[in-house]
Amino acid sequence: MAQHLRPANGYCSFNELGVLRLLQGIVDRSLIDDFVSRTLGPLIAPGRKQANALVHTLDALLIENGNGLKAAQRLGLHRNTINQRIQRIEQLSGQPIDDPLFRMNASVAMLIWRMSEAHGKE
Length: 122
Known about the structure:
Number of domains: 1
Shape: globular
CATH architecture: Orthogonal Bundle
Order of helices and strands: HHHHH
Helix content: 55-70%
Radius of gyration: 15 Å
CATH class: Mainly Alpha
Strand content: under 5%
Largest sheet: none
């Protein structure tokens, strides 16, 4: 799990998990799955042609605190491409990307989704 949280050495202590520590107390996994589905579902729906592009764009935007120009640089894309993807993300999610609550929820959901994807590949 630690390597998906981006520490340099791939390890982190339980105390370093922050908000993710709260997840270990949730016994009903369906609550977590529902949260991820409601937050990211429209972006990660199977068969969606742009799914990976939108997820990578959202991840870059979250890493760059919503800064589209920095996200474009991170992904090696033109700013207009990022702007188009932001519009699509907002359209699919029904949330503005600059909403702090959406960004917090999306950040947590992305971490959970990334860890679930990695766990499924192990």
